[in-house]
Design goal:
It contains 13 helices and 15 strands. The protein is an alpha/beta fold. Helix 1 crosses helix 10 and helix 6 packs across helix 8.
Length: 384
């Protein structure tokens, strides 16, 4: 079967999906505004340049439709909230399968306020949403839906930002509103980052993996730089099943939680798409891209698949950046431990049998570092 991965050219989850589907024998292509990691994989048969899914999204949808008609793609996956929402919105004219539930469910499931309300109904704790006189710093500012409404938006999303004061809050909210979006202000929760990763069919969980982050980047409000799979928390898994049934979800989902010391886990995000640490679930024996592709073609799993505990994952760039920041802030570093962790871990960019995305990315990073060094030297040499 022919599969089209639609992304913005920066998604590490897109690369993991391309590798997974390519190894399974699918013919995989990538469509994005810029050529990124996934398009450079040896498992990618071709790359298509397309516009970003900003309003009016019919331009984006028309480009995907043309690709489906010309190349015969049978399934399309959006790797990114904006891409997934736009594909879902225009599914009736695309001419291929998406593997998603009805569009109303998709739109609601990418809405952080709506998901928080559904989580509470399922017995899952969430951070308190704040506003007006209830704001007590620090707080976390999020974009309610990661889908830019204006063509002037420079990216597909604004990442969650930890804010320490009123000036920072005004700036963070203003950035989101300038994109035509809506900001959500939540209490800041410190704790262990965990995720329940799953595949659901018709509101029933058919595959499940529980992972815990060992290191995150950026610190405080970041994503997994290192993570490992653990035995499922059965009490939490049961509540997640109730949430998925309430949503009526169909497809892959990553539910991120923060577990405060001595407290219950709080749901902080619902990612109904391929996500950054996708390579970890695959390494744990739950090949989510293949499972989703087969289900979209009418062959979902008949029983629940569980991931094995003990699989390891590393986002090497993020982990090294974290180590550098730790050195600057504390005077200590674990850079050697970071490098020692790499050989036995699954990676989001590096791949031993598919090295070109990592090699190309390393060259890009080296070029950036060189330009910064040249700029710094020119500034210091011109200083009296």
């Amino acid at each position: 079967m022919r599969v089209l991965i639609v992304e913005d050219g920066t998604q590490r989850g897109a690369l993991a999906a391309v590798r997974s589907l390519g190894r399974a024998g699918y013919e995989v292509a990538v469509a994005s505004p810029q050529k990124g990691h996934a398009a450079r994989s040896r498992h990618c048969t071709r790359w298509h340049g397309i516009p970003a899914p900003v309003e009016p999204t019919r331009v984006f949808a028309g480009a995907v439709f043309d690709l489906v008609q010309r190349h015969g793609y049978e399934i399309a996956f959006g790797v990114g909230d904006a891409e997934a929402i736009a594909l879902s919105e225009h599914r009736s004219v695309l001419g291929c399968e998406l593997g998603y539930p009805d569009h109303e469910i998709v739109r609601s499931s990418f809405d952080k306020v709506w998901v928080a309300e559904a989580a509470l109904r399922a017995g899952i704790a969430v951070p308190r949403q704040l506003g007006g006189d209830t704001v007590v710093f620090p707080v976390l500012v999020k974009e309610r839906i990661h889908a830019p409404e204006t063509a002037e938006a420079t990216s597909m999303r604004v990442f969650a930002t930890k804010v320490e004061d009123a000036d920072g809050l005004e700036a963070a909210v203003g950035e989101i509103e300038e994109r035509g979006g809506q900001a959500v202000v939540e209490e800041f929760v410190a704790g262990l980052l965990e995720a329940v990763v799953l595949f659901a069919h018709a509101g029933t969980v058919r595959a499940l993996v529980h992972q815990v982050a060992e290191k995150v980047y950026p610190p405080g409000a970041g994503v997994s730089a290192r993570a490992t799979t653990v035995p499922a928390d059965e009490a939490l898994a049961e509540k997640v099943r109730a949430l998925i049934a309430d949503l009526g979800w169909n497809g892959v989902a990553e539910l991120q939680f923060l577990r405060p010391p001595g407290g219950e886990p709080r749901l902080i995000d619902f990612n109904g798409r391929f996500y950054g640490s996708l390579a970890l679930a695959i390494a744990a024996g739950v090949d989510l891209p293949v499972i989703w592709a087969r289900a979209a073609a009418g062959d979902p799993p008949s029983t629940e698949i569980r991931g094995r505990a003990g699989a390891r994952y590393q986002w090497l760039e993020g982990d090294l950046r974290r180590a550098v920041r730790q050195r600057r802030e504390t005077g200590t570093t674990d850079a050697l431990t970071t490098l020692a962790y790499a050989p036995r871990a699954a990676h989001s960019i590096w791949g031993g049998t598919d090295p070109w995305p990592a090699v190309r990315f390393a060259a890009v990073l080296a070029g950036r570092a060189l330009r910064k060094a040249v700029t710094w030297r020119s500034r210091t040499s011109s200083t009296p």
